[in-house]
Amino acid sequence: MKLLKDFRPSSPSYQDKMAYTTLRFFSLVVIVLLLIMIGQLFFASREAFNEFGFAFITDDFWNPIDDEFGALPFIFGTVVTSLLALLIAGPVSVSVALYITEYLPKSLSNILGTFVELIAAVPSIIFGLWGLYYLAPFVKDTVTPALKSTLGFLPLFQGPSFGIGILTASIILAIMIIPTITSVAREVFRSVSILHKEAALGLGATKFEMIKIAVLKPSFSGIVGALVLGLGRALGETMAVAMVIGNTPQISKSIFAPASTMASVMANEYAEAESDLHLSALCLVGLLLFVVTFVVNLIARTIVWRQTKGRSKK
């Protein structure tokens, strides 16, 4: 007992002070690292910005041989694949979250929820390999003929399909963001007061009507926040997309055409860039991607925070 007393800190205030100092140090380290990263991106991309200015965002010509760079094809590819992925993953994710929270018993909902969240733990390179060897041929041989036979009159579904392209990349992204949207949507649905659900059922509403009135309607802003968070995840995905999108800096009306994203062009060209201007242009693309992702995540966090704050007041 005497030895134990000897090893005890001098006072509880000493423990509190040490814990506070340690936690504050690590918190500041994270913020400082983020600021350093932003500063280095600004510094590395200044040569390209001085050369091209804001025309870098609107120019659609990318030619590393002649040191001519414009990021518009990559911005187009990033936005289109991310929005198409959100269009596919959104309804699926919200449906899964509703099924888990409103229909399944608690024991089974925990198991299914865990399986859905485990998808987020799969490395993106695995998704890329699966997409390259299995999904791309399926899209070429099955999905494309079906879309062309039914919706072929639209420019979006015209042109040749080689399997790899915008559609395949969007499907891969959709699968990868389902766990993110589902997890946030589950938390939003769980925050709905049980009294509202019982009141709706007590007034004679069916299960479907109760979900529509007492769950989905008050959760609208939270669902939007979950979708925007998924969009932010899709915007920054790199390896899986780089393996199946075709990596062609072009803007096409067809979703079967190959394209390229901001993340994929950095992954593909950074190691082979020879001129300083090429490296700087890639860093400027990275800075643009950082700004877009940061703004999207900030919007999503704000929406979810307002949803949570509104629930906590009730």
Automatic annotation (TrEMBL):
Protein name as annotated: Phosphate transport system permease protein
Chain segments annotated as transmembrane: 21-43, 74-100, 112-136, 156-181, 220-245, 279-304
Role, per record: Part of the binding-protein-dependent transport system for phosphate; probably responsible for the translocation of the substrate across the membrane.
UniProt xrefs under PROSITE patterns: ABC_TM1
Keyword check for Transmembrane helix: yes
CDD domains: TM_PBP2
Protein keywords: Cell membrane, Membrane, Phosphate transport, Transmembrane, Transmembrane helix, Transport
Residue ranges occupied by any ABC transmembrane type-1 domain in the UniProt entry: 75-300
Entry superkingdom: Bacteria
Protein's cellular compartments: Cell membrane
Family per similarity comment: Belongs to the binding-protein-dependent transport system permease family. CysTW subfamily.
Gene: pstC
Membrane topology per record: Multi-pass membrane protein
